[in-house]
DNA sequence: TATGGTATCTGCGAAATTGCAGGATCTTTC
DNA sequence: GAAAGATCCTGCAATTTCGCAGATACCATA
């Protein structure tokens, strides 16, 4: 039931009570394990997804199967509607952690948009924010060298991770997964992480990366004027 | 007057007649010469811009003043609203050709959104499409080598150019401007353009680049599965 | 038409990135 | 707990990209 949902940041909360109940009765909320596809590139668009809990990567591949992660999403984010107006997804989505994700079909969503201006406006604002973030990312990936890109990637992962309450952010992604976020390869990521560890800018516990001072990492990227969001 | 506007693709056309007239009476439509700032990074957000005619680049700079073009826009596109909810622009916008651009203030826009669900939905879809395009661009810039990036840039410029009616698309941007779109430098762009001219994939007339076969150029990038949009 | 300033082109050495290879470490499975 | 498989780390050579510099071509102004 949406009305009892623990996730206050869900966009559906911007609908009227009637509509929240209506959507609630039509949605379903499967439980996804880690590394599970939510939808594939090329598959039919049936509706949209709202992340209740967990972390998700949005990916796009070239013809050889090489994957690029184009966006990370966490609870409160909306997925899959990017392809609105198209019949098929041009991107895919995969869970990075165990997740709960609500699905709402196209028709219900369309009616909700027409009758809930506040909801529609907030969804518009969400896309507007994501576009701005994507554009800042474009700039950073275009201008930065490898080391800076890796730091950017780590901060981006931290930003979209769920347990950022403590002063120790832990990153469980593989070097390969991090490389796909910033458009490089796993060797480069390894090298940079080794250097950052020597410089005391992060720690590692086995393969887990531990960020103990986000501000110090952000300071290394201050040339790029990205104080607000990563 | 919006009702007599030549630009059918303007998002404002999705409002009711009443509202089109209301917006029409409140907007203004300055005439911008080439290379004119529409708004600056860091300046206050007063409203949104709707391009009636012309081509615009959205830019973001680092602290040394080095510029990256993060998006191109043409007639029918909406600008400046990316910063919705923020007080200041995180990006800037500059005309690439002589342009007419309508300005609508925040308050009028907000009321229009609340009372014109169709308008709001179309604006949402616009941002959704732009986000998808930005993400495909992220992937391409991350995966492509220099030559491929230059071709991508040329196709992107052609796509957002106004005179794509003939089978000869002419590009009047400088090598430096092209370089800023794809995140490289003017020398690299020169080199690639020379090679493409030798391979008969484009012509040059003085400094103007002439694309006479867009399909052939697109074919060189087919590995990246970007058939739909650039 | 002449002239100064700017943009473009291209060669070349420097720097950064890539990709392979081999060894070390960690995880999984039995 | 041992073995097999996967991931991670790091050195090195090959490749790509960068950025300076000089030559050429173009544009604006007088």
Automatic annotation (TrEMBL), chains A, B:
The lineage of its organism: Bacteria, Pseudomonadati, Bacteroidota, Cytophagia, Cytophagales. It comes from the Bacteria. The keyword DNA-binding applies. Keywords: DNA-binding, Transcription, Transcription regulation. Residues 144-215 form the HTH crp-type domain. PANTHER family: CRP FAMILY TRANSCRIPTIONAL REGULATORY PROTEIN, HTH-TYPE TRANSCRIPTIONAL REGULATOR ARCR. CDD domains: CAP_ED. The keyword Transcription regulation applies. Pfam families: cNMP_binding, HTH_Crp_2. One of its GO terms (cellular component) is cytosol. This is CRP-like cAMP-binding protein. GO terms for molecular function: DNA binding; DNA-binding transcription factor activity. Residues 11-84 form the Cyclic nucleotide-binding domain.
């Amino acid at each position: 039931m949406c009305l009892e949902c623990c996730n206050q940041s869900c966009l559906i909360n911007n609908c009227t009570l009637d509509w929240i109940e209506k959507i609630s009765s039509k949605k379903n909320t499967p439980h996804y394990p880690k590394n599970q596809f939510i939808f594939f590139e090329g598959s039919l668009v049936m509706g949209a997804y709202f992340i209740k809990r967990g972390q998700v990567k949005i990916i796009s591949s070239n013809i050889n199967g090489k994957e690029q992660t184009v966006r990370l999403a966490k609870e409160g984010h909306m997925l899959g509607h990017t392809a609105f107006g198209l019949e098929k997804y041009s991107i895919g989505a995969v869970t990075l952690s165990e997740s709960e994700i609500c699905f709402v079909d196209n028709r219900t969503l369309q009616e909700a948009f027409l009758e809930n201006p506040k909801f529609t406006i907030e969804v518009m604002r969400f896309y507007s924010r994501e576009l701005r973030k994507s554009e800042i990312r474009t700039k950073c990936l275009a201008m930065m060298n490898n080391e800076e890109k890796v730091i950017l990637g780590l901060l981006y992962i931290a930003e979209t991770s769920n347990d950022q309450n403590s002063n120790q952010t832990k990153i469980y992604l593989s070097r390969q997964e991090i490389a796909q976020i910033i458009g490089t390869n796993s060797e480069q990521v390894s090298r940079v992480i080794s250097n950052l560890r020597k410089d005391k800018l992060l720690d590692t516990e086995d393969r887990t990366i531990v960020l103990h001072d986000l501000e110090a990492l952000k300071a290394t990227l201050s040339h790029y004027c990205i104080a607000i969001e990563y």
